[in-house]
Amino acid sequence: xxxxxxxxxxxxxxxxxxxxxxxxYMDMAxxxxxxxxxxxxxxxxxIDDCWMERQRDSTGRLVADRSxxxxxxxxxxxxxxxxxLKLGIYEDYGTKTCAGFPGSYGYLKIDAxxxxxxxxxxxxxxxxxxxxxxxxxxxxxxxxxxxxxRIANT
Length: 154
Known about the structure:
Glyco_hydro_27/36_CS; four-stranded parallel sheet; 4 strands; Aldolase_TIM; TIM Barrel; hydrolase; single chain; disulfide bond
């Protein structure tokens, strides 16, 4: 079982207790362990949309929002793993995520490598901003299977 919080609150100054940031996810991890939820089977915390910068870096990689995740996603995954938890993360197969951040279309290989390097355990792949013609032709499923294989091979 997993826990996810979805609400794209990104203004940490105005909303320090509900803003999507590494402290919020660390606090959730601590609560799951300390309050017994992890023991009851809640072993995965999932970061949903809005966790990344609006642009990929110069090498084409996704980058966590530097002000809200200053230690990076890899460090957050390590924090979860040290507590016996898993980290899930959100991305979108389309050109952009539902909230307008960079999608994986055209970047499947590098995104799979990036998530593997960060030691992300679970990927939620959404379908916003996907070319409907690709879906109608069944090419969407083929691409998802390619991504699945790339992640499995990392």
